[in-house]
Amino acid sequence: MAESKEEQFLDDIEQAEAEEQSVIFDDVVDTPEDEIEQLRAERDALQDKFMRALAEAENARKRAQKDRMEAENYGGTKLSRDLLPVFDNMKRAVDSVTEEQREAAGALIEGIELTMRELINVFNKHGIRMINPEVGDKFDPQEHEAMFEAPVPGTKAGEIIQVSAQGFMLHDRILRPAQVGVSSNPG
User: CATH for 128-187?
Assistant: First the structure.
């Protein structure tokens, strides 16, 4: 059974302490050279113990810093995902407005557009960026999700032929891939 680094470290400390005790309580000291050798051994054991404790403290500090950075960058992932449908609905509302509706309820529609822009600004402030593919772009499975494939004349296989929904990234992680239709034309 493999021991963890922490268990190995604790075993090493116990062994060093046992050796230290045997050096300290060894009542047979024949010559001054033996006493000097025992003191050197004790010093080396204590120095080794100190260096191991120092290395472990540094590793713990680095782990804590990494955990803090990840929590800071990705702690709001769930909330961010929950806000994406709000953006989608607002975008659909703005996209569905006709010119007649815009003339009749211009202030209301302008308010929706301003709210949507503010939501995008908040997303940008917190490291959320939009993945906004265009028709004709090459399909990228890292950022896009193919919702369907269809043979469309004049396109190449793997080209985006329709964008159903924008995708979003939180720093370097995908929150939601862009939903697209892809051409399946051969050659």
Answer: 2.30.22.10
How many residues make up the chain in this entry?
187
| CA gap 6, 1 in Å, rounded | 14
Check: CB of residue 178 under 8 Å from CB of residue 133: yes
Question: Using CA of residue 140, residue 145, residue 150, residue 154, what is the dihedral sign?
Answer: negative
Per-residue exposure over 103-128, b if at least 16 CB sit within 10 Å of its own CB, e if not: eeeeeebeebeeebeebbeebeeebb
pTM (two decimals)? 0.65
Query: Domain map of the chain by residue range?
Result: 5-74, 76-126, 128-187
To which H or E segment does residue 18 belong?
helix 5-24
Q: Which helix (H) or strand (E) holds 1?
A: none
Tens of pLDDT, residue by residue over 107-142, are 999 999 999 999 999 999 999 999 999 999 999 999
Contact in structure between 175 and 81 (CB atoms under 8 Å) = yes
**Rg of the chain's alpha carbons, rounded to an integer?**
32
C-alpha span between 106 and 90 (Å, rounded): 15
Kindly report, residue by residue over 2-43, the tens digit of the pLDDT.
Answer: 567 777 877 888 887 777 665 555 555 568 888 999 999 999
